[in-house]
């Protein structure tokens, strides 16, 4: 039977009085704060539901505002799980390092510390759960991984979990990532606006099972939005082929389509063009899916620090809602990037001028 809603609203003090605890304990328990035991949190939340408690949205907004204005004491941790074969490689990627920075700053505002845990042969998923459970850590952030870790029988149902990016296939939890489709459409438009008409796209073929297919779809969508640009098919290089075979595929594509600009995920594309005696930007202009982790300075800023910040905020909402484990309804939050001008892709006339100057 639903609680009677005709009387005055139920307050935190009412719940505390009914349970014999303080209203501050009730408040913390309703927010799943780790200082309150699991048993007490469940007891308080059950009583709140039975008594018909409803939070005041104005007071909740005020509390959030105050947390943003005042530094919170660090009193709990959020786990950042690193299962890379060489854990030091993870944050060598500037994008991923900025995820960490954004999440760390956001966590601190809510009184959390972001703490890295490195899995290896000696630090197994079972050992990880033992430590997290003992310390009352209930939130996990999973950064991107090039490998697929063996999570064994890790009990995800004990934790609120958020992934960054789509590279991890397991666990199938909520995701915060860059909007690769929108970013690639934006890049195609910006390259076109700068006078280029034969716009190509180059990426590794193996990425098709992850983000690569989204970049490809965005590129094809970008082609459809301009009328007089030539529709050059994407070049998807098989990196497992021999270097000579990769180069032969690249040479064939260049000769057949003669692109005047390329949008790419590859950090070594400038070196590949140099081997073909092509100068950037005089012969071919370049833009990249990320200006942080490629040797190209024109392209997309994916705002990775914002991705990190939003990742923590999503995790915090799951913790406060008591949502744990693998969700039945999967959610994705996409952060749209911005175009950044750079010398690798000037206005087309400027590229021609630079080429003439270099010949003098």
Explain what the structure shows:
The protein is of the alpha/beta class and 360 residues long. It folds into 3 domains: 12-69, Orthogonal Bundle (434 Repressor (Amino-terminal Domain)); 76-178 and 305-337, Rossmann fold (3-Layer(aba) Sandwich), CATH 3.40.50; 180-301 and 340-359, Response regulator (Rossmann fold, 3-Layer(aba) Sandwich), CATH 3.40.50. The protein is built from 12 helices and 12 strands. The protein has helices at 12-19, 23-30, 38-51, 57-69, 94-109, 125-135, 180-193, 212-224, 243-257, 269-275, 304-321, 348-359; strands spanning 76-82, 112-118, 139-142, 160-164, 174-178, 199-204, 235-237, 261-264, 285-288, 299-301, 332-335, 338-340. The strands form 3 sheets. A 6-stranded parallel beta sheet has the order 2-1-3-4-5-11, with helices on one face. A 4-stranded parallel beta sheet has the order 7-6-8-9, with helices on both faces. A two-stranded antiparallel ribbon has the order 10-12. Helix 1 packs across helix 2 and helix 7 (180-193) crosses helix 8 (212-224). The radius of gyration is 25 Å and the shape is elongated. The N and C termini lie far apart (88 Å). The mean pLDDT is 87. Residues 10-64 form the HTH lacI-type domain.
């Amino acid at each position: 039977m639903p609680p009677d809603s005709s009387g005055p609203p139920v307050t935190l003090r009412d719940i505390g009085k009914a349970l014999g605890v303080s209203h501050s304990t009730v408040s913390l328990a309703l927010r799943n704060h780790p200082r309150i035991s699991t048993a007490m949190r469940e007891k308080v939340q059950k009583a709140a539901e039975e008594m018909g408690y409803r939070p005041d949205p104005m007071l909740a907004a005020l509390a959030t505002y105050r947390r943003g204005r005042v530094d919170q004491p660090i009193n709990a941790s959020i786990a950042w799980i690193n299962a890379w074969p060489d854990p030091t490689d993870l944050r060598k990627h500037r994008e991923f390092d900025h995820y960490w920075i954004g999440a760390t700053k956001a966590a601190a505002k809510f009184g959390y510390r972001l703490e890295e845990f490195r899995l290896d042969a000696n630090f197994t998923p079972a050992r990880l759960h033992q430590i997290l459970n003992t310390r009352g850590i209930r939130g996990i952030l999973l950064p991107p991984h090039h490998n697929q870790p063996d999570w064994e029988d890790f009990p995800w149902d004990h934790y609120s979990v958020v992934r960054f990016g789509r590279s991890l296939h397991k666990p199938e939890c909520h995701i915060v990532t860059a909007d690769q489709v929108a970013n690639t459409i934006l890049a195609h438009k910006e390259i076109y606006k700068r006078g280029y008409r034969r716009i190509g796209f180059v990426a590794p073929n193996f990425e098709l099972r992850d983000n690569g297919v989204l970049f490809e779809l965005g590129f094809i969508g970008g082609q459809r939005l301009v009328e007089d640009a030539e529709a050059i098919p994407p070049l998807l290089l098989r990196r497992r082929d021999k270097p000579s075979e990769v180069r032969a595929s690249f040479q064939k594509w260049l000769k057949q389509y003669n692109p005047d600009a390329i949008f790419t995920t590859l950090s070594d594309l400038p070196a590949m063009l140099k081997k073909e005696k092509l100068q950037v930007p005089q012969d071919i202009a370049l833009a990249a899916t990320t200006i942080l982790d490629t040797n190209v300075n024109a392209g997309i800023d994916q705002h990775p620090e914002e991705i990190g910040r939003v990742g923590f905020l999503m995790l915090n909402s799951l913790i406060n809602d008591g949502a744990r484990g693998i969700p039945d309804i999967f959610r994705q939050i996409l952060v749209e990037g911005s175009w950044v001008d750079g010398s690798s892709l000037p206005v087309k006339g400027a590229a021609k001028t630079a080429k003439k100057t270099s010949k003098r």
